[in-house]
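cron nightly-structures :: item 1 of 1
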Amino acid sequence: MKSYPALTPRGNGRSYGDASLGDFMVSTMQWSQKIILDQDRTILICAGGLLLEQLLAFLIPQGFFLPVLPGTAKITIGGAIAADIHGKNHLYAGSFGSHVEEIKIQAGPGNCLTCSRNHNKDWFFATIGGMGLTGIILQAKIRVEKIETAFYHQHTREVHSLPEMLDAFSISPSESIHQLGWINDPNKPNRFGLFSRNKPASIQDLPYHQRDNPFKTTPFRSWNMPVYAPRIAMNPMTIRMYNLYHFKQQIKLNEKIISFHQCLFPLDKIQHWNRFYGRKGFLQFQAAFPAEGALMAIQELFNCLKTYHKTPFLTVIKAFGVTSGGWLSFPIPGFTICMDFKFSKDLPVFFESLHRITLNFNGRIYLAKDALLKREFFNIMYADAQRFTNFLLENNLKFSSALSARLQLTRT
């Protein structure tokens, strides 16, 4: 084992930070991508290198769906497990790891093992949200859901304040409700934001001409951002103009039936959308807070925006329910907020202020989106951080990444 370099497991490279970067990256995307579906047990067995969009193309025509999906379908199953991704229905469904029954891992040469909640438990909970540092995820057994249609009924309404936004989230005991709060401009009280609730559409919800084939959808027409935007293209004024346009468009038609593409994967509408931010790109801040302190925490974050004269391009809020049990899993019961910022020289200092506020309110930063968190902050935010590092050492695991080196999770 000592003669092998430290490998960095990599899916489709959609992490916003440095989680999938390293000197020796290895991906399973070109390997065999077999899928087995047990319709009676609603259990799926698939390869770790399979993209979510490939899996959905297999599942939906048969009337099945993944219970948890992020804002893009262009990540792998292995990446979804390693980041323990969450969707807009976390309050109802939990994170992706909550629906994983079993994982097969290549932990080293000649060391291939299977783990679950009852077998090799430490391996299982270290791998759920473990950022790929326990090994290459070869295969997973996942619970899937039956669906009536591939459409969602969306209701959108205006909210006028942050307290009203947080109060709008509610748990549904019977169906997977996807809820999202979108904030127009945290620095401006006028036209504060929108709250949307999406629930799976029944066949009766569909227009007559669609009821004979309720799983057939037309993917929205995606277009490509061919070049990087000029440096001055994105500034506070253009950001506000875009958000105001979005606000008016969404509130215009507040009740509608939309496809799962439109409902769940807005990021996939524009290929290379990150080029809007110019060659230096952007960073996303995403933090989760316990419910009881979330309102004050988010208000403090907004005050920090004013102090640093920052205007995020995108600001959204989601509610979190129960955790998956993964040692480094991000979601905690409460709320999460994410904000996108065009890169600038002062962004590291600004982000450290945001991280300190997060720490003060017992919150934590999402590792899959992070690029700047410091080790000392991480140790406090994640109670099982040392347990995770000890596990890697005890099992002589030689996987690493730029993120793990920055947070000193691994020693290579």
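cron nightly-structures :: done
The radius of gyration is 21 Å.
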